[in-house]
Amino acid sequence: MRTVLVTGVAGFVGSHVAHRLLHAGDAVVGVDNFNAYYDPALKEHRISSLEPLPGFTLVRMDFADAEGMSRVVREHGIRHVVHLGAQAGVRYSLEKPFEYEKSNLAGHLSVLEACRHAPDFEHLVYASSSSVYGHRPASGVAFRESDRVDEPVSLYAATKRACELISSTYGHLYGIPQSGLRFFTVYGPAGRPDMAYYSFTQKILRGEPIEIFGEGNMERDFTYIDDVVDGVVGVLDRPPERGVNNILNIGNDRPERLLDFVRHIEEAVGREARMILRPMQPGDVVATWADITKIRALIGYEPKTTLATGLPKFVEWYRSYAR
Q1: What is the mean pLDDT of the chain?
Q2: Which residues are catalytically annotated?
Q3: What's the CA gap between 241 and 243, in Å, rounded?
Q4: What fold characterizes domain 3-184+224-253+289-303?
Q5: Separation CA 213–CA 178 (nearest Å)
Q6: Which sequence spans correspond to the domains of the chain?
Q7: pTM to 2 decimal places
């Protein structure tokens, strides 16, 4: 049995990854500071299903605390880390830029330093983002890991790209094996309230209008949480050579128009949406589409869940959670 450190364990992806690891027989040390970017009650809800499981240890701490992170890694003999904690959100980065400096930059550096000093360290898997690809038109060409990523259009994207560069430097200097995962619009049960599918479902059920930015013409590669977890856990088991920072897309390989996305929510909820079309917001991009050739070749990754299947699962969870 190995022990895996998961940062952001009370978050959306982190909690699902921790469940998968625990059910596979691994021990999990989860780190989270339960910040108030969105309602901490949802984070407590996620953790409540993890705490009874054998092998789970929760550490309530900010992973940007470098001394604290090093202590946790040392005390638990950590050799595998899944770093999923971050300050998320494109629009929030316009309001609170220094939250991104602390969590995404100082936090990533804190994790790297802890890994650097861990004896016999084996693999750091960390979350990047499709936002690093910047603003690209809906050209019918999927985003490849080899594409240029030097023009981010939001501070959030810039911090995620900076984390990739810092990781490459640490790999070169200290030989840390790393895998950086560029997530493409993850959705599913117990998801983040700041994501469109969550707020759309909430408002449609209440009979409130929803705002559709980009006048509904934006496209996103929506990826169901179970498929994302398949990718994260599969990559964790396949570390690259020492010193390599392996960048990989995790997506559904299927961009969907935002208006079609809303139609699927309407069908799952059983009620029509009252839509207000708005122009694009600062920091938004027109389209995302993951080329998953690289991760498919590495671990046989194949997304299995379509919007028609995944969104009803989220709506069912939301009805239960929100009562």
Answers
A1: 95
A2: 156
A3: 6
A4: Rossmann fold (3.40.50)
A5: 36
A6: 3-184+224-253+289-303
A7: 0.95
